[in-house]
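Hi F.,

I've been meaning to write this up properly since the lab meeting, where we talked about keeping a consistent format for the predictions we share between groups. The idea is simple: the sequence comes first, exactly as it goes in, then the structure tokens exactly as they come out, then a line or two of notes. No screenshots and no reformatting. I'm using this chain as the first example so we have something concrete to point to.
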Amino acid sequence: MIKTLQRHGNSQALVLDKPILELLGANEDTQLQLSVSGGSLIVTPVHTGIGRDGVDRTFEALQPRYGDMLRRLAE
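Output, unedited:
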């Protein structure tokens, strides 16, 4: 795929199409790490994990089935 830079204020922007974002597993909120290797620009999504809320939701979902076991492990 060949892309052209687009003017965005005083800068140039590279617009990533939805299929490319989907291949990266990224969306408009995903931070992207940019690096250069030789003459190539490398774009890598920064996956920061599920966060505290995600951990809490996962634990709540596991609690009914594994609550007793988790309590015994904590002792």
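Notes:
The two ends are 57 Å apart (CA to CA).
Strands lie at 6-8, 11-13, 31-37, 40-46.

If this format works for you, I'll send the rest the same way.

G.
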